[in-house]
Amino acid sequence: MHLTLDLDSETPIYQQIRDRIVEAIADGELEAGADLPSTRQLGVDLAINFHTVSKAYDLLRREGIIRINRKSGAVVRPDVKQPSGDAGTDTDWKRRARTMLAEADVRGLPKADVLEFVRTTLFGFPDQGGDPGER
Amino acid sequence: MHLTLDLDSETPIYQQIRDRIVEAIADGELEAGADLPSTRQLGVDLAINFHTVSKAYDLLRREGIIRINRKSGAVVRPDVKQPSGDAGTDTDWKRRARTMLAEADVRGLPKADVLEFVRTTLFGFPDQGGDPGER
Amino acid sequence: MHLTLDLDSETPIYQQIRDRIVEAIADGELEAGADLPSTRQLGVDLAINFHTVSKAYDLLRREGIIRINRKSGAVVRPDVKQPSGDAGTDTDWKRRARTMLAEADVRGLPKADVLEFVRTTLFGFPDQGGDPGER
Amino acid sequence: MHLTLDLDSETPIYQQIRDRIVEAIADGELEAGADLPSTRQLGVDLAINFHTVSKAYDLLRREGIIRINRKSGAVVRPDVKQPSGDAGTDTDWKRRARTMLAEADVRGLPKADVLEFVRTTLFGFPDQGGDPGER
DNA sequence: GTGGTCTAGACCACT
DNA sequence: GTGGTCTAGACCACT
Questions:
Q1: Which SUPFAM superfamilies match (chains A, B, C, D) (predicted)?
Q2: Mind telling me how many Å the CA of C11 is from chain B's nearest CA?
Q3: Ramachandran angles phi, psi of A67, nearest 5°
Q4: Structural domains of chain D, count
Q5: D41 and D68 fall within a common domain
Q6: Cβ separation of D79 and A10 shorter than 8 Å?
């Protein structure tokens, strides 16, 4: 697993690691049940302190995305990507997504471009009926 | 202007106020150039301290979304919703949006539902041409 | 007199007008005792409200840089550019200048470049002994 | 770390704290990566409320000069004093510096004295080669 | 009448 | 032990 970090970003490193792992799971790079590298190993790979990796893993654990076992290390939860049945999760995500879409609009990003970006990110290819990506 | 706050949320109240105002601008409820209520007035309306409102306004000001004048109060910037010409803004937004879409997937929200939610939020009505996930 | 404003800047317009006038006086474009355009005329020239120009003039008046006479309009004070004999003025300027030089250093601007910029701005040409402006 | 404040100044205390810390970093008194005192401790030292210190730290954080960690406190960013690669930063600094140099001139500070002050502040000793204003 | 600043104290998470 | 948040109240300039 390779993660790209931006050490100069305002976003804390442990948060970036958490975000990149969530993206790796969504992309299928990390499957449900898969082992994560040990905190020490990932720390070496990323040239950062393993405590920072631990913080990221702890965050993912508290979010219910991974499981941590002292002996066998961290694994992606087998039931990840499955609807939680908790309506609160969806409601919370939608509220945050609504804010993010509003930000795009307020920043002047055209709505059509935003929708196309979302479609491409989700499904990996642009809409076939007129391709805004080539404008 | 009416804003709904969740006092029990983990999200700070000042951040919620900021988010709700961004959404109100995106929705057209607050137009470019429109007056915002005074910090003390909004504090009374929301039954919170005016300092908390002030913090939200300060955030919006620093983000370039509103202007604050000591005498005449706060207004939505006239040039809001216009592209900044700053590529960094778009890049940053897209990075955050990518993480948010990954979260939806990891939480088990179907991709087609996510796209439909985005389309409806942006354009106010669902797609008329069937399931976009299967094109 | 031509002033260039940045309407999108975070700096208030009246402050920008004030700054540009101070620079025009320093550059000799506006001499001691010279008439300033009327607030209405400058407002038309800059395509802004004349009240904003009035605010800038009022600021300059309070700073002791111009005089405002209801009948004859605004003029650059005849004694501008002359030492005030008030040690506080120098001390205050030096404190602010020290902070600004510290900011350049903290931002990573090379000290030699900063000195060269100051020299060129003050005297209109670079140092003759090695020209950092051509690196 | 000792900071001198002027409680009677028009400049807000939190801004003065911010300015003095920037100067301390430029002077090398505070090195990249160094710990800052806790907000409460510095508040006690300066005999002011810790909220005021907190506001100064928040300003420095948003400027990218320090990092704040809820657990371990505030530290000078390790990459401070390194060019940001953001041309906007330099342009903005130069615009502000130009205004400040114009102010010195308008106030009657001799240009040669201003240049000498800048040189001494930057390099710690005056020019050895005579009057730069006459080269 | 408006926002800005500062003080003071409380409670909170651990980011 | 640290910073973050929120409340409450005072005084200030007019930016």
A1: Winged helix' DNA-binding domain (SSF46785)
A2: 11
A3: -120, 140
A4: 2
A5: yes
A6: no
DSSP state of D68: E
Per-residue model confidence as pLDDT tens digits over C30-87: 999 999 999 888 988 888 888 889 889 988 988 889 998 888 889 999 989 888 766 6
CA B68 to chain C, closest CA, distance in angstroms equals: 10
Chain A residues with beta carbon closer than 8 angstroms to that of B84: 107-108
Q: Same domain, yes or no, for C19 and C48?
A: yes
- DSSP codes joined into one string, B56-116: HHHHHHHTTSEEEETTTEEEE-TTTTS----HHHHHHHHHHHHHHHHHHHHTT--HHHHHH
| Protein CA D56 to sugar C1' F10 (Å) | 21
Contact A101, B26 (CB under 8 A): yes
- Same domain assignment for residues D96 and D67: no
Is residue A7 pLDDT above 80, yes or no? no
Q: List the CATH number of the domain containing B57.
A: 1.10.10.10
Per the structure block, which two tokens stand in for D25? 């970093």
B8 within a domain of the structure (yes/no): no
What is the domain range of residue B25?
A: 13-76
A22, B109: Cβ pair inside 8 Å? no
Q: What is the pLDDT along chain D (135 residues), one digit of tens a residue?
A: 789 999 989 899 999 999 999 999 999 999 999 999 999 999 999 999 999 999 999 999 999 899 998 888 999 999 899 887 677 778 889 999 999 999 999 999 999 999 999 999 999 876 665 554 444
Q: Provide the CA A19 to C1' E8 distance, Å, integer.
A: 39
Cβ–Cβ under 8 Å, residues A59 and A22: no
B79 contacts on C by Cβ (under 8 Å): 7-8
Judge if the beta carbon of B73 is closer than 7 A to nucleic acid strand E: yes
| DSSP per-residue codes, C12-48 | -HHHHHHHHHHHHHHHTSS-TTPBPPPHHHHHHHHTS
Report which of residues 41-70 in chain B place their beta carbon less than 7 angstroms from any atom of strand E.
Answer: 41, 51, 54, 57-58, 61, 68-70
**For the whole model, what pTM was predicted?**
0.84
